[in-house]
Structure formats: structure tokens, C-alpha cells
From TrEMBL:
UniProt lineage: Eukaryota, Metazoa, Chordata, Craniata, Vertebrata
Family: Belongs to the SMEK family.
Name of the protein this chain belongs to: Serine/threonine-protein phosphatase 4 regulatory subunit 3
Biased composition (Low complexity): 741-770
Residue ranges constituting the WH1 domain according to the UniProt record: 1-107
A single BP term in Gene Ontology: DNA damage response
PROSITE patterns tied to this protein: WH1 (PS50229)
Compositionally biased tracts (Acidic residues): 804-816
UniProt-annotated stretches for the region Disordered: 679-834
Amino acid sequence: MTDTRRRVKVYTLNEDRQWDDRGTGHVSSGYVERLKGMSLLVRAESDGESGSLLLESKINPNTAYQKQQDTLIVWSEAENYDLALSFQEKAGCDEIWEKICQVQGKDPSVDITQELVDESEEERFDDMSSPGLELPPCELGRLEELAELVASSLPSPLRREKLALAVENEGYIRKLLELFRQCEDLENADGLHHLYEIVKGIFLLNRTALFEVMFSEECIMDVIGCLEHDPALGASPRRHRDFLTKTARFKEVIPIGDPELRAKIHQTYRVQYIQDMVLPTPSVFEENMLSTLHSFIFFNKVEIVGMLQDDEKFLTDLFAQLTDEATDDDKRHELVNFLKEFCSFSQTLQPQNRDAFFKTLSNMGILPALEVILGMDDVQVRSAATDIFSYLVEYSPSMVREFVMQECQQNDDDILLINLIIEHMICDTDPELGGAVQLMGLLRTLVDPENMLATANKTEKTEFLSFFYKHCMHVLSAPLLANTTEDKPSKDDFQTSQLLALILELLTFCVEHHTYHIKNYVINKDILRRVLVLTASRHAFLALCALRFMRRIIGLKDEFYNRYIMRNFLFEPVVKAFLNNGTRYNLMNSAIIEMFEYVRVEDVKSLTAHIVENYWKSLEGVDYVQTFKGLKLRYEQQKERQDNPKLDSMRSILRNHRFRRDARTLDDDEEMWFNADEDELEDGEAVVPPSDSKAGKPGGGAGEDEDLMDPISKFMERKKLKDSEDKDVLGKSSSLSGRQSPSFKLSFSSSTTKTSLSSPPSSASLHPGSPGSPGSPGSGAKGMPPTPAAAAAAVTTKVGLVDYPDDDDEDEEDVAGESKDENPPVPKKSKLSS
């Protein structure tokens, strides 16, 4: 199978009747068990998808395959799904075509195998009974008969095929064009109208072999002449030939030495003109009627780009004249327009060929040439150069970045390519700034770290961003700085505001994606203060852009930024804008409140204190949202912690012990308790994991004896014991002896009872909350199992499964109250030991 492979491009026809490139691979034919028949297989050759199947198509005996231009095979896989294989070599196309014809039992010399017939059995039998379609003699008197024959054949696929074969085999097109010339000389209007219908019908036959004859150099102008005489226009035919020969001029900006290439360019332009201007709109015809015409133009363009790319002399002359200072403006204008058209044609190339195309242009010096062009005064030339630049940035941002970093070593900042782009963005004369929006998108692509490369030797991100902030950022921010010298924008017209909004959008992008570069620039140049001047603009979209810029900075939670904001009181213009907005419930109102809400929710302590200390009097009256009261509460809590550092450290201890561990994760001891079978436990025995019964430090003070309850204890307390059992246990707490009721097997330690789950036989007191109590890691001593009396003395208290930070105050009050009371376990243990 390897021997039969041929390099091909796979195309599919999209909904817009344009061919989409699906990739390059090697085609083969063979029997596929799953499809139960001979099939065409195309496997990808690209590195990323090596060996992947691009196409697997069974050669259906009833599918119509067409061979076009010696290297194309086109067919319809299903309704509205057309496929094409473009072969690199004619030999490969011929070999696969023979395989297809062999499966369908056709002669390989034909260019089309057959078409699906959607006719009734009776019509099919009638048509099949006649071996071929006989055309009337090509004479003036028989034109009406021929026009009727063509019109009657178009609805039937089989009759269309027979008609196409008859027209092709008999050389009928040239005979018809000879009659056209006679009719024009005789001014035979009826004959010209019949010829219009006949030629239009031949187009609808959708056959490549006929197109190649009609679009040949000697025939195409007469074909266009036939289509001028539409009967609907009466005696006023269109003058398409006059336009093509007199108005439309073919300008060879660089002489093309290859006559075949020149002829292909002429042919493509004229066929495109026929499709766009001469023929009726495609919606008039049946679906897929002109698919072959679309394919003809598409593959012509691919061929033109390939031939121009291979002509080294042509490209060398092109770029030499573009960069030559002696070239006059008109000539350079033509050269730029040609280069733009050349780049637009390249979009039809497959990815590998497109890579080679742009590498060739880069090697020829397209970027220095664009730098010269962008410095010209002609608006149309600059617009064309911008389009070319967009093709290059879209293809390879790294190539553009590498060029501008190299040129900065030789040129001044003013004439750097990126600075020229920025200046054109700033100086866009369009009231809607259409060109500026396009250029801003290109700049955003160039400064986006996501498409920057990193290698072992160098990091493109570091190098390019250092270059950009040193040589280009001052040019970008110049309009912003010039317009914000006062408390209000100097110019507040719509076009200026649009431009400043674009610049702010790019700066906001930089804040999000660049690190210390933009931070240093914002702080050193006091950019944020200047930006916030724009909150006073009468254009709401610009004021919101300024707020968005500040919101992105606050969202980074960077203390360098926060200190800069506080030092310069940069919340002042925001508060002023909020108050000036009044009670209007609009986007400005929501954006400002959301900014303060973010500071509150994220508990940005430095900004919270700054806002409350400086702006509380202005904001305390806002009560339709709780944001500002919440900020004041945060501030007061923060001050309380600062005034009572011991209390603050105690809260942190509680949080560390009670909330840090993932509640979903069980330690080994907890797993042991849950895995234990309740029936295996001895009646009356309090079940406690060994690690939870630890010796406390004797002599521990009240501060050490706080109840740092282990979360598993709280989980067990959540199990609601029956009231009767609780009362029974409590009633017997002083006199219970012997075995406990089997229904009560767990004893708990809570913040209210302060009774230890277990104690060693020593006389040392164990206080819950000491380092040896449950929940206090670090205690190594293991406790002994408790006696039944000690277990019965444990009083259970219902505790929620989830503790919230707000509960800390209540816990601390309990701890403080307990330290004053006598410790309950001490007399119980004395009683037990006695």
C-alpha cells in the first residue's frame, strides 16, 4: 500500500460554497472491512497528527467522481457535502482515478464517472433506452431548437450528463461561438438571445472539461459576449467586454516573465468577473449547480501563489523597488496593492505551504519594506500596509517581535515599526476609529505573553517586554498623559474619548498579563492618578474604562500597588464620582460599589483602613447596600485585634486547631473508630481512640486549659442521643456502679462540661484544652481507658457539625468563665480513687 500512496490535499466545500483545507496527507486505496468495499484513505503527514486518518471514503458504484485539471478529483459524499483531492503529481491522480474507474467499471479516459439519478423508474428507462443525446446541427436556424433541448435537459441529472458529453465530444462550443460572431455581425437579436440561454445552460452543466474550453484565451471573451445579451434586458445589452478590455487594465508592477503565469492571472480575473458580475446570483440556480466554477477559481489562485513564490527574480525585484527611495509614490502604491492581494491569495494555501510563503516574504525583507510604507502620507497606501502587517502578526507574532528588537539597536525610537503602528492608531482620522481598533488588536497580540516563546538560551517575554516598556510605552501613553493634566480631561470630545478608551483597554490588558514591568511604569509615572481623572468625563464608557483599570490593579492584591494608592489618596476621585452619580442606579454606581465590596470580601486590610479613616464621613449615609457598613465593621475588628494582640493570637490558635484540617479527611484513629463493629465493644466501656486520651501537663494554667476540641469529638456530639438515655445517665452520674447500659457507649468532652474522656491513674488533674487534650497535637502520652463512673460523669452537649468563625467569641467567653470555677473532674477523680 505504501507504493500507491500519493501526496494530496483534502478539501471540503463549506456552506458559503468555499473550499476549506482539511490537511495534507498520502492517499491510498484498499479494501476496508468496516465499509465492506474498496475505499480511498488519506493519512495525515504533519508531525502533530502523524498517521491520523484525514479521509476514509468508500468508492460507491453510484457516486459521480470528476477529474479536473489533471490533478484534481472531486465528488459529493452526501447531499451538500462535496470533497476534493488535490494531487501534487499528475501520476498520483491518474493512478487513483484508475482505481475509482475500475471499481465503477468505467473507462479511465472519461473525466466524470456518473451521477445519482433522482428520476422515476419510467423516466430512467426511457433515458437509458437511448444510448446518447443527438444534438441538432449548429446552424442559425436551429438555435431555438438547441436552446429548448438544453433547457429540457437541465432538470434531469442523466440528461445533463448526456448533454455534456455530446457538447464536449463534438466540439460544439467553438461552433456556437462562431455562430455568435455571425449573429453580432448580422445584429440578429433573436439568435443572440437563444445563444445567451444556451451558454448559460452549459455553465449549469457544471463540467470542468467544458469550462477549460470556455475559459481558454481564444474563447472566453466570446463567452462573455454571449452572456451580455440577456433577453430580459431587451435591446440594451450589457457591455462587459468593453469594461474588461478598456476600463480594466492589467498592471504589471513587476514584469512577469513566465507567459503561463501571466495567462493564468488573466484567466482567473476574467472567470472571477463572470462569477461575480455576469452570471445571475447563485441563489437563482439549483444547489451545487456552480460548485465546479468555485473550485476552478480556488485552485487557480493556489497555483498562482505557488508560481509567484517560486519566481525568485520576481520577488527580489518587488522588494527592491518597495524599499528604493527613488521609487515614485504612484509606483509604490501599485506595489503595495499587489503585495496585499498576494498575501490575501496566500490564505488559500495549506498550512505547510503558508509557512513557506511567509518565510520567503520575511527573508525578502517584507518588514523593513512595511516600515518605509507606513511612513508615507498616502492614507490608502498606509491602509494596505496595515492589512499586510495584520497577515504577518497573525501568522507569526514572534517574527515581528524579533525584527523590532533588532532594529532598535540601529534606529531612533520615533521610527521603530511598533511606534509607527501606535502613531497611526493615535492619528486615525476615522470618527469611529475603525483603523485604530484594528491596530490596537495587533498591538495586543504582540504584547501578549501567551504567544511568546521561551527557550534555554533566552526568554522572549523578558526581552521583548523590557524593550516595549523602554522604547514604546511612552508613545502609547502620551495621549493619556497629555489629556489628564488637570482635574478634568482637557479634551472630552467623542473621538478623543474613543481613543483614550482603546489605550486604557490595552493598559488594562498589560496590568493583567505583565508583572513588574507595568507595575514599575504605573507607580513611577503616576499613571493611575492620571487615569482616574477620566472618571470626570461626560462619556460614561470612558469613566468606566478608568474604573476597570483601577479594579484590575486592586484585584491583584499587591501591597506595592496598595501603598501607592494610599500614599496618593487615589480613592478620592472614585468617591467623588460615586457621590456625583447620586442615587442613579446605573453601571457607574454598580462598578464603584463592586470595587469597595471586593475590598471588604477579600479583607484587604490596608485599603479597608485607608477607606474608613479617610472617606467614612462621605459614605456612611449609603445604606441601600451593606458594603460600607461592612467595611466599617472590618475596620473596627481590625482595630480591636491591634489593641488586644493577645486576643488576636488566641483566635489564630483556635482557627489553626479547629479549622485547618480538611473535614473530609479522617486520621487513622478516627478510621479505626468508624470501622469498629459496635457489637464487638464491651458493654459499659467508653469507646475513645487511644490518641484522643492523652496526659495533660500538671499545673497548667487557665490560659493553657482552654477547650481545643478535636473535630471528631464534635462530630460524635452531633449524634443525638435519646433524651431518656441522657436523663438516665445524668441521674446516675454520682452512684452508677458496675456495667453501663449498652445503649450508651460514648462519652464526650464539651466546652460546657469540661470532663475528660479518659485519665491516667495518677492524681494529676487533666484539664480539657491542655496540650494533652483531644485536638492538641504534640502530646505523646497515651491515656488509660476510663472507668464506668468516669464515663457516666460525662455530660453531653449538642454542638453543631460545622463551626463558624463567629462562634469564637462565645467559646472564648466559656473558657474565661470556666477558669474562675472549680474544676469538676478533680473531686470525681478523688472520689474514684478513694
